[in-house]
Sequence to fold (233 residues):
Amino acid sequence: MPAAFILSFAQLWDPAIRRILLRALLLTLILFAGLSWAVFKGITMIETNGWPQWLQTFWTNGAGDAAAFLLSMLLTWLGFTSIATAVMSMWQDEIIVAVETRYYPQAKGHALGLGVELAMGGRAAIRVALINALLLPAYLLLLVTGIGPLILFIIANGWALGREYLEAVAARHVALGESRAWPGQHKWDSWGIGFLTAGLFALPVLNLVAPMMGAMMATHIFHREREEEAKAK
Fold:
């Protein structure tokens, strides 16, 4: 796992990887800008007629803007992992191909197609979004511990992310049913990829490359496991 992480991080400077990253970051920023605009627009449309006078004054003197800002930040924090995962799924096949071309040219798989990529990425994004939404009360309760929300975030998201990245790579090389079973057959690999990726998502700046790192690490792990299994036969 450490070797897969190091190789993946080093390849972030590959021109092909950088181009994918820039496209994905641009689209992600556009989506979050649209989300923030929608939140602020929705807050301004709140009808305050019927509110006590003091509350109306408080709301119009800045409380409304503060509420919109805090809500935008909360949605950004909760939604970044799922949205970034969905966005990166559009180019996930290209990322896997870039790793295979450089390190495993003898074992390049077949293309998945944009429809399959989006379906797999969408499924992962929905799973992550639901997990974080359901765990929101726990995140809030654990705020008093300081590090509690971070630990819970990594554990919960690590489970979801690891299996999705590993399955996406496996789908390029084995039958669909086998690719879905692959993460379960390699649980420690799946958890390792997921924990590292979720940890990156939890860190500022590094969270921007987290989904790309997850896909690249999964590619290395998949091929190394297949090589080990082939040697063992």
